[in-house]
Amino acid sequence: MKARYFETFDALRFFAYLKVFLLHLPITAFPLFSFLRSNGGTGVIFFFVLSGFLISYIVFQEKEKTGKLNLPHFFIRRILRICPLYYLMLLFAYCTPYILELLHLPSSSEGYEPNWLLYSLFLGNYQSICLDMTPNVAPLGVMWSLCIEEHFYLLWGVLVYFVKLNNMPYFFAGGIIVANVARIIFFQAGVNTAEILTNLDFFIYGAIPAYLIVKFPGKLENSVLSFSKKAKILYTLLVVGIVVALPLIPDFVKDLLMPIVLGIAFAGLITLFIPEKSNFYISDKNGLSVMGRYTYGTYLFHSIWISFFVHIFSGLQLFLDIGIYAIMFICIVFFCTLGSAWFSYHFFETQFLRLKKNFY
Question: In 3D, which of 214, 172, 201, 173 has the Cα closest to residue 60?
Fold first, then answer.
């Protein structure tokens, strides 16, 4: 029972990745760019909401139709999707000092020395929390979110396995409360929130529309189809406006209130694209959707290419506070990242993804 493909979601993934990509670019040439690139963490929040929807839809649909969830198969499918590239990148990070020495490039003196056992167990985010800094080698700096994703898969799979679908709304409410209380505690203690409890509600906001379309087939889709295209465009622009305006919002509001606003707003945006027969969608043949298929790879590769070309540009005396060099840097990093993600997907990841059909 293979899950339904949701057109437009690949394009949404690309926009989420783009926000993260912009955040990590060390460009100082354009003041407007500096404004737009801030709060790139909203891209990760969008990823979490998307994951919450897609994973929940898969497990809710299976349990609704068969009366149970095949937990080993669910975990094997997640392992086949996440682990091959994750561990390849972990191996690359481990070998990075030797690669830099071979290329006669300096290694970074910023950040902590990663505990390889913790990262191999998807627990590296907790080392970042305890040390309150990022690791000193790419792409480990972005892998904290993958650790959280894995923790969500484990938690959600076990929960759905044991809990009746009719009772899931109670866990939605409880999870949202727990996440918000945890965020308050973490913020007051000055502790990094890169862990599952403080991010659980983002996954749940995505899970709610998934639950509705599984338990009440057609009702949510018909409600969305009743909205005019103009209304959907206006809502989309509203969500974009909220994301762009985040740097202008006071920190205490941004830290405690905006996660709720963003989670609900992103879940609403996803819901607009759920109906199959809609006049509001982005085709899977669109360039944005095509690039969105490779977001797992681009998310992991981009920090490597950024670090590499920072060394190259500084060695060539090409300074990133000068407009033409900044534009060159952005274009080179973007296309190298996309190219390596494309290559990884088709010649490495696909070999494992083909096996997933044996576990539906």
Answer: 214
Residue 52 lies in a domain: yes
Q: Cα–Cα distance between 243 and 19 in angstroms, integer?
A: 10
Of 321, 232, 307, 216, nearest in space to 273 by CA = 232
How far apart, in whole angstroms, are the C-alpha atoms of residue 176 and residue 201?
5
Separation of alpha carbons 180 and 260, rounded Å: 8
State the residue for tokens 């191999």: 120
The CA angle 240-242-247, to the nearest 5 degrees, is 115
Report if residue 2 sits inside a domain. no
In a domain, 4, yes or no: no
Is residue 109 over pLDDT 80?
A: no
pLDDT of residue 2: 62
Exposed/middle/buried for 300, CB within 10 Å: 0-12, 13-18, 19+? buried
The percentage of residues in the chain with a pLDDT greater than 90, rounded to a whole number, is 77
Which tokens is 230 given? 């103009």
Residue type, 339: G
Compare 263 and 246 and report the one with higher pLDDT.
Answer: 263
Lookup: tokens for 234 = 């206006």
Amino acid 311 reads H
Distance CA 27, CA 335 (A): 17
Domain with 123 in it: 9-359
pLDDT at 1: 57
Strand partners for 135: 112
Q: Which residues pair with 112 in a beta bridge?
A: 135
Helix (H, G, I), strand (E, B) or coil at 135: strand
Residue 248 within any structural domain of the chain: yes
Token pair of 47, please?
Answer: 């990823």
Split into its structural domains, the chain has a count of 1
The amino acid that residue 96 corresponds to is: T
Signed CA dihedral, 173, 179, 180, 181: sign only? positive
Q: Look at residue 247 and tell me whether its pLDDT is greater than 90.
A: no
Of 28-42, 164-178, 229-243, 321-335, least confident by mean pLDDT is 28-42
First and final C-alpha spacing in the chain: 6
For residues 58-79, give the mean pLDDT. 95
Structure letter (DSSP) for residue 166: G
